[in-house]
Amino acid sequence: MKFSISITTLALALTASASPISETQPAAEKKAAAAISGSGTPGSIFMFGSAANCRQIFYDFGACGLSTFFADKVPASMPLVAIPSGIFDRFGEAQDNSLCAKVITMTHNGVTRQAIVADENTSSEQSIDMCLDLWQAFGGHDGDGSLITNFSWSIAA
């Protein structure tokens, strides 16, 4: 009889350990479950000159680690951006950030463009940092490092 009780106990223990445990979802994942948006955010240029070189820097060295952790999720045709650290940091750290590799839609003065979140911008301006192709699409000029003000933006879940 003791033997059958031990087997029953073992079977119950294995069943319980294999059952899914209802845990609360991490805060970073909860926040990314819904789209987020903002307005009045400035835009800045990350690097003058070649948009391709700028994109490669974001891709290889940005906080999200796109080249390592998201290589198959980032279309080569999409521009890359760094979002303000005040926004980025609320959704996790580095490549574990739930905003990494997500599409951000940005609008300024009736011009709308999309890009992929690749990095965080830790500057005091707390701006969306972009490469020359996006910068020019929004009215910026190569060699002009002033901020473009009042972007509205959203990042889909």
TrEMBL record:
The keyword Signal applies. The keyword Signal applies. Residues 1-18 form the signal peptide. It comes from the Eukaryota. Keywords: Signal. This is MRSP1/expansin-like protein. It comes from Trichoderma parareesei.
